[in-house]
Design a protein that fits this description.
Layout lengths: L5 H19 L2 H18 L4 H28 L8 H4 L3 E9 L2 E6 L2 E7 L11 E8 L2 E4 L1
Helix pairs in contact: 1-2, 2-3
Length: 143
């Protein structure tokens, strides 16, 4: 055991920590593996065992303290790409048939949709542009 330098043991430890990272997909193992790599660097530079262990602990804990909250925040955010009817909300449409509170037709995203106005006292004439505020079933609610 004395024939193998300490930095080699740290590299073996880093590789060993990389295996559960791949198997379990737990990023904490990767952070520990990076700590082991930095400790291997400290061993390669000739620092003692105490400095190597402290380097491993400090780097690993720092990565967990900094990277993990960022990763958690990104995993809980809604995706920025809206699809389906959510993507149609806020779009502009062209009135094809008079739209009032009882109905009408618009051209929205290249398709003809039934529509009605959000405001019961408001009507939109052919050729006007309207904004889609909601989709209820197959009917666009416009203002």
């Amino acid at each position: 055991m004395n024939d193998i330098d300490a930095w080699v043991w740290w590299l073996v430890g880093a590789a060993a920590l990389g295996i559960p990272l791949v198997i379990t997909a737990m990023p904490e193992f990767g952070m520990f593996a990076v700590g082991a790599l930095v400790a291997a660097g400290a061993a390669g530079l000739g620092f003692g065992v105490v400095v190597q262990v402290l380097t491993f602990v400090v780097i690993s804990v720092a990565l967990i303290a900094v990277v993990r909250p960022i990763a958690t925040r990104h995993s809980t955010q809604r995706p920025q790409l809206r699809t389906g009817i959510d993507a149609l909300k806020g779009k502009q449409a062209l009135v094809l048939e008079r739209v009032d509170s009882s109905g009408g037709r618009i051209k929205l995203a290249g398709e003809v949709w039934s529509a009605r106005s959000l405001d019961t006292d408001r009507a939109y004439e052919v050729g006007q542009e309207v904004d889609v505020v909601e989709i209820e079933g197959a009917t666009a609610i416009v203002i």
